Amino acid sequence: DTGVSQDPRHKITKRGQNVTFRCDPISEHNRLYWYRQTLGQGPEFLTYFQNEAQLEKSRLLSDRFSAERPKGSFSTLEIQRTEQGDSAMYLCASSLDRDWENTIYFGEGSWLTVV
Amino acid sequence: GQQVMQIPQYQHVQEGEDFTTYCNSSTTLSNIQWYKQRPGGHPVFLIQLVKSGEVKKQKRLTFQFGEAKKNSSLHITATQTTDVGTYFCAGEPYSGTYKYIFGTGTRLKVLA
Q1: Does residue A105 belong to the interface with chain B, where contact is any CB pair within 8 Å?
Q2: Please, what is the Cα angle at A67 between B102 and B41, to 5 degrees?
């Protein structure tokens, strides 16, 4: 399968712990996005990378959230000192800048439950 | 802040009936995309509209972008059970930011 891959698919953590999610985009896709989705809501934009540069970051993100894409390929999203309100599905997506329609491919998501 | 609303929130239709969801943005959009998300699944890209007044068709699906580039619609003709899911619009307010604001979604149920 050459789609967007996310790991882990599910994570249960205690409040206050740190968690990290990994995303492997489709090969050669230079655009990478992170979104958060809670039940019954639409995905909420978190951040966007063009290659290794983080070009957009939501003001909704607190300092507890950080994302990296060190070599312009895979990306990680870390949440420090998790809170119950962080429970959600974290979606990674990628697209190719040569695609004029900017078709965005989403991964299957990483479910986070903070207890 | 920028908001994208969709109506209706839910829609139940008999198989074979038509379905329309409407998307309204509080600000002018550079472009708008549409996605379908099946229950328990992830969003799947359907289409992107860029030009004012643009209309695009994909088989039984018709997408429109308003003249003012603040609203859009998705119309499905003769729904099938495979159309079940939640349909989201996602607007990019500023071209080149790739910061897509998703709508609230319309959940479609099709009764056989």
Answers
A1: yes
A2: 45
